[in-house]
Amino acid sequence: MFRTLFTLFFVLRITVFSFAQKSSVDTGKVEVVQDYKIRELLNKHIDINSKAPIKGYRIKIHFGADKNKAKEIKAKFISKFPDIPAYEKYDQPNFNIRVGDFRTKLEAYKFLKEIQVDFPSSFLVQDNIEMPELKQPDKK
Q1: Phi, psi of 101 (to 5 degrees)
Q2: pLDDT, tens digit (0-9, with 9 covering 90-100), for 25-57
Q3: Which CATH number do you get for residue 125?
Q4: In terms of DSSP H, where are the helices of the chain?
Q5: Number of domains in the chain
């Protein structure tokens, strides 16, 4: 008798518990309650990190004191590789032309080998790079 009563009680308890859970899950809505300062901190974190320089690599294709020669080499590079950005920087007394925004040394080295035919004195340098543009996948 005691076993039967215990079993019946146990089965009823599990049935009631499972129905109680089912009714709370059926709504399918989640409400997030948070302090507005959390959102402010997240936005501040995003703002600070967007301004931080990104370490990467560029390829220096020219350095010299002649400004016209530097502009000529930059124009030659842009005409051959229009998709790769070129940067002109003046470090007294030289004009430097650096190209590319490569996140890894391997990427930069691969491109260096490609351009060394046209720019034989080019070499890799570590530099702060611009954030590369993300390309959207084609929707088909």
Answers
A1: -135, 90
A2: 567 788 888 888 888 988 888 888 777 788 999
A3: 3.30.70.1070
A4: 2-25, 36-51, 67-80, 105-115
A5: 1
